[in-house]
Design a protein that fits this description.
The protein is of the alpha/beta class. It has two helices and six strands; from the N terminus they run H-E-E-E-E-E-E-H. A two-stranded parallel ribbon has the order 1-4.
Length: about 70
């Protein structure tokens, strides 16, 4: 059921396609979309110590993530 649902979404306009992204040494990147959206990430270069997060999640989860992130800084 999950795979068939993902297939339907992937064939729709609900897919973000970031390409040719480079994350520098110790860099951070978050690609976040609301539920029902997908990412088709292509050609990503991540340098030493860099972090990348790709997620499709609820609005409440995004708010909690950023709240936690800013509290850590």
């Amino acid at each position: 059921a999950i795979c068939s649902n993902a297939s339907e979404i992937a064939s729709s306009e609900k897919v973000h396609v970031p390409e040719d992204i480079t994350i520098a040494k110790n860099g951070q990147q978050m690609l976040i979309a609301t539920l029902g959206k997908l990412f088709d990430v292509k050609r990503i270069k991540i340098s030493e110590g860099a972090v990348q997060m790709v997620a499709s999640t609820s609005n409440a989860s995004v708010q909690e993530l950023f709240k936690s992130y800013h509290n850590e800084r």
